[in-house]
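Per reviewer request, we include the raw input and output of the structure prediction for the construct analysed in the revised manuscript.
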Amino acid sequence: MESVRATSEAGSGHPSSCCSAADIVAALFFGEMRFDPNNPQHDDNDRFVLSKGHAAPLLYAAWAEAGFVDRGELLSLRRLDCDLEGHPTPRLPFVDVATGSLGQGICAAIGIALNARRLGSGYRTYVLLGDGESAEGSVWEAAQAGARLALDNLCVVTDVNGFGQSRATQWGHDMDAYARRWRAFGWHAVVVDGHDVGELLDALEEARGTRGCPTVIL
C-alpha cells in the first residue's frame, strides 16, 4: 500500500509492477533475508538487487517497514529534493546496484555472489527479476555464468505478471516455458504462486538448501 500511496502522490511511477511483487518482497525481507535493518551496509547482510528497477517504490516501502526509511519520506518520491528516485541509486545506503536499464541487475548480482565466495563470506544474494526484462539477452548470459560458476548462494525470483510496459510478455503465464528455459541453463527452478507467502517461504528455504547450482523461483 505504501508504494501505491507514493506513486499516487508523485503522479508517476509503476504501481502495478510494485503490487505484483509485493508478496515476494515481503517474504524476502521479513521471512528470509538476514540483515541488520539499522545498518544496511553491514558486511554480513544478505544482498538484494532490484533488477526490475522501476519497482523502486516497493523497495523503499520495504525499508520503511523495516524502520530505516521514514514513511513520510515515501510521499516525496521522485521530487528533486528527495533521494527516493524513480529507480534505485547507490546514493541510498541500502542500494548496492543502480538499476534502470532492464537486464543489468542480475548481471551485477553474479559478481556480488561470486564476491561472497571469494571472501569466504556467508551472505546470500537475492535478485528480483521482471518477466518483461527476461527477454533481454544479458539475463541469459548472466544465467549461463551463474550456472557455470555453481553460485548456489544466488537466488533469483522472477515476477511473472504477464505484462511488459506496453504489451503482454513473451511467454505470458506459461510457467513451464520459464522453468524449462532456466533448467536448460543449469539452474534449479521452483514454480510457486507468487501471492502465497507460505509457498514463497518454502521455495526460499529450498533454495537455501540447494547445492551446486543457483536457484530461480518463478
